[in-house]
Write a structure and sequence with these properties.
Structural class: alpha/beta
Shape: elongated
Bound molecules: zinc ion
Radius of gyration: 24 Å
Number of strands: 16
Helix content: 25-40%
CATH superfamily of the largest domain: Zn peptidases
CATH topology of the largest domain: Aminopeptidase
Number of helices: 11
Length: 413
């Protein structure tokens, strides 16, 4: 059974306790930042996580979905359970920022703040293991390979929810567009489904000075790029959010040759299956006919790699109220983002919610957004991120007869 009511006067989150662990958490975050690892290669990170959890006395399971780690904390006798998830992987980006803890792994960088997410979840594990008037099981899920490799799905396929049952699941992502102290979520879609397409245009090739003897691969490909940009504006209901962006065009290697082939790659974002179907069908039709009009052939590969991230209504409410209890200015997000997230796979299995946690300076266009080579996670939000995770647990695993509060109820982190 899951509960959606948040215990507004719980006494388990203690500012002085968070302050006690904060220097260690900040040092840990900097250490993770200095040692970023790409998806399914988070061997050092997973070891750090597992050792931290073991030190707390949690039951620790490594190698779940390759490099994933699950820590289990049980209290009381209830069969209720909640899953809290953080991602551990970094990106193939050369860091341009110069913090003291700059990446020591050339070409790899924590440019999405997963070092911060991992740190905040470890902080919540620390706090809930030290104190916490809850009754049930908390599964701390540290997943690999969020950045495009579906690490969440790898963990699910490896039996995540059968081995570690969860009534509901929750995750947080730092959000540079929102200021520190602000959090948002929403029921229903919060992040888009992400598809990738690759189109190969082929069948031409010849001397650049004899265009009458060969179809022009480059001309057809250029025209195809333009036509693909009409898919959303001409085929999709203008009130439905959707996106198609061409991100790569490759072709040719000489100034005097018409290349035999050229390729186009791009991404599609949408929030419902019907829109996704229309975009794929339209893309396939245009990709076939535009090259054909030039006497060329085309091969299309279309891969739907992440579904839309859909929060369940009750759990979105839980996430929002937990954020308020954690001292955040929390509200429903007016609209979803077209970025994507593989937590979506977990939300296909379990009710749950995903929260955006502000980490910016209030500028709606941050200087270093997510995935930027100068991006850095903001350590100032570690305490409130820890508290949000803890508040979620307290709201979901309320004891039937709450015991006496062992800790000073002041909240002052
Ligand atoms: Zn990212
Ligand atoms: Zn991310």
């Amino acid at each position: 059974m899951s509960r959606t009511a948040v215990n507004g006067d719980n006494c388990l989150i203690n500012g002085s306790l968070i302050k006690e662990i904060l220097p260690r958490l900040v040092a840990l975050r900097h250490d993770l930042h200095a040692h970023p690892e790409l998806g399914f290669n988070e061997h050092r990170t997973a070891k750090v996580v597992a050792e931290f959890l073991r030190e707390l006395g949690l039951e620790v399971h490594e190698g779940v979905g390759k490099t994933g780690v699950v820590g289990v904390l049980r209290k009381g006798s209830s069969g209720r359970s909640v899953g809290l998830r953080a991602d551990m992987d970094a990106l193939p980006i050369i860091e341009q920022g110069t913090p003291d803890y700059v990446s020591t792994h050339q070409g790899v960088m924590h440019a999405c703040g997963h070092d911060g997410h991992t740190t905040m979840l470890l902080g919540a594990a620390w706090l809930l293991s030290k104190t916490g008037d809850f009754d049930g099981t908390v599964n701390f899920i540290f997943q690999p390979a969020e950045e495009g490799q579906a690490g969440a799905k790898a963990m699910i396929d490896d039996g995540l929810f059968t081995r570690f049952p969860c009534d509901s699941v929750f995750a947080v992502h730092n959000w540079p567009e929102l200021p520190v102290g602000v959090a948002q979520t929403r029921p229903g879609p919060i992040m888009a489904a992400a598809d990738r397409f690759d189109i190969r245009v082929y069948g031409g090739g010849g001397h650049a000075a004899q265009p009458h003897l060969s179809p022009d691969t480059m001309l057809a490909t250029s025209e195809l790029v333009v036509q693909l940009n009409t898919v959303v504006s001409r085929c999709i209901d203008p009130t439905d959010p959707a996106l198609l962006t061409v991100t790569q065009v490759h072709g040719g290697f000489s100034h005097n040759m018409i290349p035999a082939e050229a390729t186009i790659t791009g991404t599609v974002r949408s929030f419902d299956l019907r829109t996704q179907d229309i975009i794929e069908a339209s893309l396939r039709r245009i990709a076939e006919h535009v090259p054909a009009a030039h006497g060329l052939d085309a091969e299309v590969k279309y891969h739907r790699y992440y579904p839309a991230t859909i929060n369940s209504e009750a759990e979105a409410e839980v996430a929002l109220r937990a954020a308020k209890n954690a001292g955040l200015q929390a509200s429903f997000a007016p609209k979803p983002a077209l970025t994507s997230e593989d937590f979506s796979f977990m939300l296909q299995e379990k009710p749950g919610a995903y929260l955006w946690l502000g980490q910016g300076d209030g500028s709606p266009k941050p200087l270093a957004p997510l995935h930027h080579p100068r991006y850095d996670f903001n350590d100032d939000i570690i305490p409130v991120g820890v508290r949000w995770f803890v508040e979620v647990v307290l709201s979901q695993l309320i004891p039937d007869s709450p015991g006496d509060c062992p800790i000073n109820p002041s909240i002052s982190s």
